[in-house]
Amino acid sequence: MSTPQIRAILTDIEGTTSSISFVKDVLFPFARSRLAGFVAEHAADPEVADALAEARTLAERPDLDTEATIALLQGWIDEDRKAKPLKALQGMIWEDGYRSGVLKGDIYPDAIAGLEAWKAEGLALYVYSSGSVLAQKLIFGFTHAGDLTPLFSGYFDTAIGSKLEAASYTAIAGEIGIAPAEILFLSDNTKELDAARAAGMKTIGLDRGEAVIPPDQTHPLVTEFGAIDAKAGTVRNAG
Ligand SMILES: CSCCC(=O)C(=O)COP(=O)(O)O
Ligand SMILES: [Mg+2]
């Protein structure tokens, strides 16, 4: 039986299309330092109030006041916790930064070139990140190379499920309307690649030199998008 051709690419962001250092050293400190001021200014906004309430529920600390909830969230930023209410708030705070021009989405040039080429070849492009859908649209919408959002057909965050669960990838394939075997998932995280493969997707890992790649991992690896034959879902010249 022949291997089905890839029809859609699903990509992670941090460590895949953008450096880990941009997220950890630029985006996270930006949100951390502005969190208290943002919450004070937007306390009446239902999305902000809901995120604070969800954080208290997740921490099983319904007793926390606003100040203590902010401290809790700052601790989660320091731990790089992929918690939905934190990710929602980070996206809202980053929006100010992107719209004012203080933040620019830092996307690897080879990722931009690869995504543009794959789109031109007729592949559909989707994003799946722990960052909120708003944060995803911002990082690709306000890049040094301009607005890249026209490249993408859709965005998924952890509202669809954890990136470490195969069921999330099955659900994404269902939403996209393309069989998992015809979707290529790209990530720097081996556990995410394992989950996507368990759901039937093709996988390629990005080794950008920042993430720790377990030596016993079993996914094809590349250091940049140019090494990927997207339609075949394989690494070029891999033998
Ligand atoms: C959407 S840009 C910020 C990314 C982010 O907050 C994050 O936690 C990165 O997670 P990813 O799933 O893209 O590795
Ligand atoms: Mg990642």
UniProtKB/TrEMBL annotation:
Its EC number is 3.1.3.77. Pathway: Amino-acid biosynthesis; L-methionine biosynthesis via salvage pathway; L-methionine from S-methyl-5-thio-alpha-D-ribose 1-phosphate: step 3/6; Amino-acid biosynthesis; L-methionine biosynthesis via salvage pathway; L-methionine from S-methyl-5-thio-alpha-D-ribose 1-phosphate: step 4/6. GO terms for molecular function: 2,3-diketo-5-methylthiopentyl-1-phosphate enolase activity; 2-hydroxy-3-keto-5-methylthiopentenyl-1-phosphate phosphatase activity; acireductone synthase activity; magnesium ion binding. The keyword Amino-acid biosynthesis applies. Its cofactor is Mg(2+). It catalyses: 5-methylsulfanyl-2,3-dioxopentyl phosphate + H2O = 1,2-dihydroxy-5-(methylsulfanyl)pent-1-en-3-one + phosphate. Binds 1 Mg(2+) ion per subunit. Keywords: Amino-acid biosynthesis, Hydrolase, Magnesium, Metal-binding, Methionine biosynthesis. GO terms for biological process: L-methionine salvage from methylthioadenosine. Bifunctional enzyme that catalyzes the enolization of 2,3-diketo-5-methylthiopentyl-1-phosphate (DK-MTP-1-P) into the intermediate 2-hydroxy-3-keto-5-methylthiopentenyl-1-phosphate (HK-MTPenyl-1-P), which is then dephosphorylated to form the acireductone 1,2-dihydroxy-3-keto-5-methylthiopentene (DHK-MTPene). Belongs to the HAD-like hydrolase superfamily. MasA/MtnC family. Monomer. This is Enolase-phosphatase E1. It comes from Kaistia nematophila.
